[in-house]
Amino acid sequence: MSNMTNCVFCEEQNKAIESPICFAIYDKFPVSKGHLLIIPKRHFSNYFEATKDELAGFNDMVFEAQRKLNSIYNPDGYNLGINCGEVAGQTVMHTHIHLIPRYKNDVSDPKGGIRGVIPAKQKY
């Protein structure tokens, strides 16, 4: 694993799931119960810099994490999101995927889902 100075993800020890390519941790500021972050072991800031092997590893981990969350929390749905760059809301400059379990009635109207990153565009 590449270790970058002051990267909270490179220093993370509390892994919920781990593979040779990436690992998953519970978000320290969860949006919902079970919110996981899927993080590559190699340090790079932008998802679009991932190698084909890393993309395959991400995908495998997303499905493994989803199975784990289903068995523990039994959510009713999921949001999957990636912030690429500061203007997109990325605050930790180490690529990561949010796997956010969703539960019936966790919001009054979930229509538009991930479109809510720009609130005025969520409803259509």
Please indicate the count of domains. Answer: 1
Task: Supply the CATH superfamily name.
Answer: HIT-like
User: Strand share of the residues?
Assistant: 15-25%
Strand order of the largest sheet: 1-2-3-5-4
Fraction of residues in H or I helices: 10-25%
Low-confidence stretches: none
Number of helices: 2
Based on CA atoms alone, the radius of gyration comes out at 15 Å
Round the mean pLDDT to the nearest integer and report it: 94
Q: How many strands appear in the DSSP assignment? A: 5
CATH class: Alpha Beta
Task: Describe the main β-sheet briefly.
Answer: 5 strands, antiparallel
Q: Structural class, from secondary structure content?
A: alpha+beta
CATH topology: HIT family, subunit A
Straight-line N-to-C gap: 43 Å
Q: Could you spell the SSE succession in H and E letters?
A: EEEHEEH
In the CATH classification, which architecture applies?
2-Layer Sandwich
Principal-axis shape: globular
